[in-house]
Amino acid sequence: MKTFRIGGVHPAENKLSAASPIRKAQLPKQAVFSMFQHIGAPAKPVVKKGDEVKVGTLLAEAGGFVSAPVYSSVSGKVSKVDVALDASGTRRPAIYVDVEGDEWEDSIDRSETLVRLSDRPDLDAKTIVEKIKNAGIVGLGGATFPCHVKLTPPPGCKAECVIINAVECEPYLTADHRLMLEHADEILVGVELIMKAVDVKRGYIGIENNKPDAIRLMTEKAAGHEGIEVVPLKVKYPQGGEKQLIDAVIGRQVPAPPAIPINVGAVVQNVGTAFAIYEAVMKNKPLIDRIITVTGKSVKQPSNLLARLGTPFQQLIDECGGLPEDTGKIIGGGPMMGKALISLEVPMTKGSSGLLLMTEEEARRTAPQPCIRCAKCVSACPMGLEPYLLSKVSEKQMWDKAEAEDITSCIECGSCQFTCPSNRPLLDMIRVGKSTVMGIIKSRAAK
Amino acid sequence: MNLILIAVIVLGAIGLVSALVLFLASHKFAVHEDPRIAQVAEVLPQANCGGCGFPGCSGFAAACVKAADAGSLEGKSCPVGGQPVMEQVAGILGMAAASSAPKVAVVRCNGTCENRPRLVSFDGAQSCRVQNMTGMGETGCAYGCLGCGDCVKACQFDAIHMNPETGLPEVDEDKCTACGACSKACPRGIIEIRLKGPKGRRVVVLCNNKDKGAVANKVCKASCIGCAKCVKTCEKFEAITLVNNLAYIDAEKCKMCRKCEEACPKHAIHGFNFPPKKVVSDAPAKPVAEKPAAEAPVKNEAGPKAADAPVQESPVINNVTQ
After folding, report:
1. Residues B259, B249 within the same domain
2. Fewer beta carbons under 10 A from the terminal one: N or C of chain B?
3. Cis bond upstream, residue A238 (ω within 30)
4. Which residues of B fall within a CB distance of 8 Å from A402?
5. pLDDT tens across A396-414, in order?
6. Do B140 and B77 share a domain, yes or no?
7. Chain B residues inside the 8 Å CB shell of A337
8. What is the pLDDT of residues A227-278, one digit of tens each?
């Protein structure tokens, strides 16, 4: 069975909510829309206090090419344009909407009927990318990179295949798994749309083999779509990393930055993104909701919720049986790459793939011990780096050395820290070094 | 015998030629270093802390000599040695020393455990730089002290320590050389290298929060909310400016009248090293009178403002009677 060639770890899977069907979350009383729901320039608000909005009304337009617009996921009145605490742990510009009723914009097709690519011969690549761009779609795996940017290859690059990331290698999370089981047809049309947008004939869907039902169903359905192939993959974290997935599926390695996947002919999109693309192009529905896994060992009802963006996390937890008493840490995203939240007021954003309530026992980090030079982190690093060294040079602020050791190649997957027998906070330090070195490189380029 | 003689002569000749070449080369390629640089370097403290902004003490010595040749030692100051060392340097270079008032590191945050309760606890690597990357940190304040002590680790003079009670670093003013290492280590730029002031007295806004008033007010009991009351009390001297919802007192313009300290509704402004405040009325309730009773020493200190003091006293009495 295929997988990526170097490094990787296998944390306990804990897919507690795998059997729970997607259910619709209730509407919030107030929805908060952050202007920073994607990587790149923040969105620029186009509404003001007191404006009436419907589901699908534009709230903020894209702030540049690498940016995405934000649409209202609820109907009601804009109560203020201010700052709000978001998952990054800082207060950033946001739009507050007080919810009244549930009125949708007329342009959105809310029917359940499947629209196939053959039903819409009028669609060409340019229209598809334009629609995706206008719908505010970003990478829904968690990185939230604006989708249209990846579908617009830089001059001189030509995509050869589309790879759909359905591995969901993060423990606990099951949002993509459930989506595949319940919306396989729509996803496959979405994949066809991506293939058409970048003009390629091959599409691969990479699924880890801890989801045999999804592999079976997708393989069955993909038979009816020319050029799409389902690739079962061995379970290994971080297979969902873009570079690891390309290596696993087509066996090509993306060189160190500034090279990007398109340089080896691959366009990678998440399976959730493919579904959102289907809805945006075929149903005219902008990105206003997504599936989020609310889970944890003490959660009464681990669930996969289809929730509107802007819903406060507190409400999602309430819908899954409330906050367990022994909660030690609340994590936005999965346990490996997610970020601990400092408040439950934080609203759900485009990148919220999961909400994990860790018990106190699970969350406890033991005191770091001295490095014993076992090199487990080196074997675990999927990028072939030397985490113990990068962590040390970051600590000592030796930025030149950090840059020479390719600290910018780090994908922050946390495999090193997971595998360290001395519980050293390797990734914590590497992150500091990486962001500093990136800053240095940026300022040097600006000169 | 003959063989030995030839060897001696040949070697001797080679030696002589080499010596001549070396002699000529040393003259031709001689690097002339100003002897004053070595002299200046000798009086410097050799801490090599870089606080002066130059690479070590020899770098600073070279810069001083260059500046002296250009005509003035203005702006050159050794934070470790202070004025005495600079006077020695000036003496060697035959110049007048630029007068530089001594400086000290000031931690501009008063978010003690009491003023600013911890909402969450951070269990990652115990480093301010790491914690700062997670966003807000343990409290709701995005600008305040993170409390992991990066400044303490950066200090080469053992002059800054964490106070476990307040959770904030405290500067030992006698040991602090104002080299600025702690200021650079702080990821939130809380530590300011500030004029020490006459007799070490200075008035400082102990807050770094640039959030709007409502947010700043919520997160900390001692935050600056940008209400500008202090700016108004200081209209005469224009020492206080309000930028990004944060008041800042210009140490050079401050007259140490401490009126802003009383005007601040959040008690974010603090006077350092002032003599203990005398109690104004006969038997006032202690906690109330403590703050505003500052006039008495001020009267002695700053003569021109004595006239204002009695006016200020009335609210004290009101407070006491209430």
Report:
1. yes
2. N
3. yes
4. none
5. 889 999 999 999 999 999 9
6. no
7. none
8. 999 999 999 999 999 999 999 999 999 988 888 999 999 999 999 999 999 9
Q: Is B121 on the interface with A (CB under 8 A)?
A: no
Prior bond of B35 cis (ω within 30°): no
Looking at the structure, do residues B165 and B252 belong to the same domain, yes or no? yes
CA–CA separation, B255 and B235 (whole Å): 12
Distance, CA of B271 to CA of B260 (rounded, Å): 10
Do the bridges between strand A289-295 and strand A202-208 make them parallel or antiparallel, or are there none, so unpaired? unpaired
Which of B122, B123, B141 is the best mutation test for A, with the most CBs of A within 10 A? B123
User: Which residue bears the tokens 């507050």?
Assistant: A96
Residue B85 in any domain: the answer is: yes
The shortest C-alpha distance from A367 to chain B (Å) reads: 9
Between CA A6 and CA A416 the distance in angstroms is 13
Residue A316, both tokens: 């999602």
Dihedral over alpha carbons A355, A429, B153, B116 (to 10 degrees): -10
Cross-strand bridge partners of residue A207: A232
Domain identity same for B68 and B198: no
Q: Which domains does chain A have, with CATH numbers?
A: 25-99 (2.40.50), 117-283 (3.40.50.11540), 292-363 (3.10.20.600), 376-446 (no CATH)
* Phi, psi angle pair for A263, to nearest 5°: -65, -20
* A343 contact residues in B (CB cutoff 8 A): 119
Same-domain pairing of B221 and B140: yes
Which pTM was predicted? 0.81
Spatial contact of A78 and A95, defined as CB atoms under 8 Å apart:
yes
Give Dmax over CA atoms of chain B in angstroms: 118
Per DSSP, A21 falls in state: P
Strands B160-163 and B202-205: unpaired
| One-letter amino acid of B114 | E
Q: In chain B, how many H helices and how many E strands?
A: 13, 8
- Nearest residue to A284 via CA among A175, A160, A168, A128: A128
How do strand A70-71 and strand A58-61 relate by DSSP bridges?
A: antiparallel
What interface predicted TM-score (ipTM) does this complex get? 0.84
Cα dist from B176 to B157, B271, B284, whole Å: 7, 18, 38
pLDDT of the residue at A188: 95
Lowest mean pLDDT of A75-79, A157-161, B32-36, name the range.
B32-36
Q: Which of A388, A432, A434, A437 to mutate to test the interface with B (most CBs of B within 10 A)?
A: A432
